[in-house]
């Protein structure tokens, strides 16, 4: 009797598995829309699942949208018909993870025909810190963790303890020392605790997984260094090793302009910022010239998504390359307050997303592709290559997958609220190029 129940359970589970897998394979086809959404992997939590209601609302409001919505409906119907005839594919998440992990793995011994510092500096533009997945990156990181320190000084900027070092070849870097063990959980307000050096490393690689297109919202971080013995007042552990992270200094010919973050916190107990009490706050931000045109507001949403995933609620200011003017991207310099508490999801970090209800189509597509645990598994694989691995505990890794789901839920809620215009194909920013890239990228996702 018991045996039979067991077999029935196995049979039902297997059938459910087959149904779910086939549904996921077919879903990209179901919701493909050539005009408004780049093709690629669209799987679970697809916002258009709920868009029938929204479409009615949108159709009354906007003629252009109207066309797109009708097209979407037609595609949907067509795809429904195809679904009946479609052959069964087999999606293997393991293969996806393997292929992405390979794509983002670092080749530390990649041969360089120029100095690593000169190469890294030549990559920087007002909208890019490094090219998308540059093969030379591993060699630059290796130069950072092996380079000889020729000068050391205390860091003079910011509030957190740090050193300014100069490496052989005259490269300036910031050194942020370790304060916590990997499994230490920081409790308290969202910005509590000291800097986490491992968080800088993890956030850098998370940015590389195409969460932030490197030509849209760059990050600039470093890798870890083992310093031999005590250095200039920062003490090494009992084993004589001082662990920390190195952040490569921006090329000196660029000047950084500091901006107050519109969604910054007050850092005062009991005093809330305007955006924390007023859900129409985005309209005020959009009235400011910096945010009313150009890519800046979408850049802020991009970084809010990254900050939410890593749990960084400390984005009080941001910097841009002055020379890039209004179109310059955010330079995300300081991720030290990330990965504090894996059991807490600080939803308020997503305020720019849910208050403005807009997100780049390219980012949304990438988020979809990283569902099903792909995000944590690929990141774990890349971080496994780091000289001070493990960088993140399993609890932090699974927090990333859980938070990814929460971001997609927020996007879905926005589509419900404002319609398809929540998903922005960013034409002010060379979107046709991105669409091409998107197609290419979908080769490594579940598609
Ligand atoms: N890699 C870098 N290249 C150029 N400038 C940098 C770099 N890192 C830091 N800076 C400058 O130093 C300032 C302080 O750095 P950072 O934000 O990392 O320090 P912090 O102690 O965490 O500061 P805060 O307490 O304000 O958060 C930055 O705003 C930036 O102007
Ligand atoms: Mn800081």
Automatic annotation (TrEMBL):
<keyword id="KW-0067">ATP-binding</keyword>
<dbReference type="GO" id="GO:0016773">
    <property type="term" value="F:phosphotransferase activity, alcohol group as acceptor"/>
</dbReference>
<keyword id="KW-0547">Nucleotide-binding</keyword>
<feature type="binding site">
    <location>
        <position position="195"/>
    </location>
    <ligand>
        <name>Mn(2+)</name>
    </ligand>
</feature>
<feature type="domain" description="FAM20 C-terminal">
    <location>
        <begin position="217"/>
        <end position="421"/>
    </location>
</feature>
<feature type="binding site">
    <location>
        <position position="160"/>
    </location>
    <ligand>
        <name>ATP</name>
    </ligand>
</feature>
<dbReference type="InterPro" id="IPR024869">
    <property type="entry name" value="FAM20"/>
</dbReference>
<comment type="similarity">
    <text>Belongs to the FAM20 family.</text>
</comment>
<protein>
    <recommendedName>
        <fullName>FAM20 C-terminal domain-containing protein</fullName>
    </recommendedName>
</protein>
<keyword id="KW-0464">Manganese</keyword>
<feature type="binding site">
    <location>
        <position position="334"/>
    </location>
    <ligand>
        <name>ATP</name>
    </ligand>
</feature>
<feature type="region of interest" description="Disordered">
    <location>
        <begin position="428"/>
        <end position="447"/>
    </location>
</feature>
<feature type="compositionally biased region" description="Basic and acidic residues">
    <location>
        <begin position="43"/>
        <end position="70"/>
    </location>
</feature>
<keyword id="KW-0333">Golgi apparatus</keyword>
<dbReference type="GO" id="GO:0005794">
    <property type="term" value="C:Golgi apparatus"/>
</dbReference>
<keyword id="KW-0479">Metal-binding</keyword>
<feature type="region of interest" description="Disordered">
    <location>
        <begin position="42"/>
        <end position="70"/>
    </location>
</feature>
<keyword id="KW-0325">Glycoprotein</keyword>
<dbReference type="InterPro" id="IPR009581">
    <property type="entry name" value="FAM20_C"/>
</dbReference>
<dbReference type="Pfam" id="PF06702">
    <property type="entry name" value="Fam20C"/>
</dbReference>
<dbReference type="GO" id="GO:0046872">
    <property type="term" value="F:metal ion binding"/>
</dbReference>
<feature type="binding site">
    <location>
        <position position="334"/>
    </location>
    <ligand>
        <name>Mn(2+)</name>
    </ligand>
</feature>
<feature type="binding site">
    <location>
        <position position="319"/>
    </location>
    <ligand>
        <name>ATP</name>
    </ligand>
</feature>
<keyword id="KW-1015">Disulfide bond</keyword>
<feature type="active site">
    <location>
        <position position="314"/>
    </location>
</feature>
<dbReference type="GO" id="GO:0005524">
    <property type="term" value="F:ATP binding"/>
</dbReference>
<feature type="binding site">
    <location>
        <position position="176"/>
    </location>
    <ligand>
        <name>ATP</name>
    </ligand>
</feature>
